[in-house]
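Researcher: Please predict.
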Amino acid sequence: MNVEQYKDIAPYRGPDVREAIERVLKDKDALLRILSSLGPVETEAERQQVEAYAKYIVSQLETVTSYDEFQERITAGVFLPAIIDKSVDTFSFDGLQQIEDDKAYLFMSNHRDIVLDCALIDLALYKGGKMFCEMAIGDNLLTNQFVTDLFKLNGGVTVKRTLPMREKYLESIRLSAYFVELITEENKSIWVAQKSGRAKDGIDVTTPAIIKMLHLSQKKKGVTFSQAVNSCRIVPVAVSYEYDPCDMIKAGEEVTRLAKGEQAKKRYEDLISISHGLKGYKGNIHIAFGTPLEGEWENSDQVAQEIDRQIHTLYKLWPTNLFAYDYLHNSTQFQDSYRDFDSEAFLYRFKGTREEVRQFALNTYANPVASYLAAQEK
């Protein structure tokens, strides 16, 4: 694999790692702001904890020489444990017995949180003794050099979204070629969401074009569609949050979009969502890894449908999901699963909002149940 031809989109490697770390270390105020975004910093004890985190990170960064080390020492070592400690009740995962230690995979998951989905999948892989994965995220999030450095130090692969149509198509093929070569030649795993952007309505459906591009990037080499898909060892992954800290933000945005059409994002809109996602209470979180895809495939739609089927059947359906489904369908189908659930407190979460926003938010919790039930019938 010629890494140089992908340098603009690939994570930092070699001397670029140390150069980026030196830039990060020079901006300690930005580092403190990032750490402060992980939870409340209102008491003196909380402020001291943030400062202790910062000192520890600085000491660790002094000897980091690769993004694998950054992921292990900083992301999995400090950031994610801090987030889980402050805003998560339990973090669990299963299905890793289907993942071989010495093989690379293309992990494809549903998309709920801008940055946490891929980070938590990486944490599950790390805790399960598997190799870290790179992660593909849109360039719209890379708002400055500091954020770009942290992203690319953490195994981040840049998806260029702000390009003219023709250039965007060619860039998609190049990005897909990077995915395939990374897995087949470098034996390095990577994560990508099943669709561009978060599923704000709770309906998780894979974009077939993502699969199609994997083949198009290899077609000139004489690789068949099935060979391209099988070589990537695609693993569907279901990420299940009990509570979505951004539920009302997403509902408001989508109700407005449906009423007025696509709206241009406001400045810092994504950063606000990232902050809410990191800080906000998430209850329980479960990551479920599916079975690597292999076989003879007719087209990208067929592959996408199998990814969807696995993700939908792998959901961990929390009381928030099951109650919302019964509530909206005037049903008691799942009442035994949420007898101890404080439904009044859950409904109070949506009090004071417009009815259409409230209904949309509740459907966001209920829709995974509907998808699960439909998948069970296939």
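Model: Strands lie at 88-94, 106-109, 133-138, 156-159, 189-193, 234-241, 283-289.
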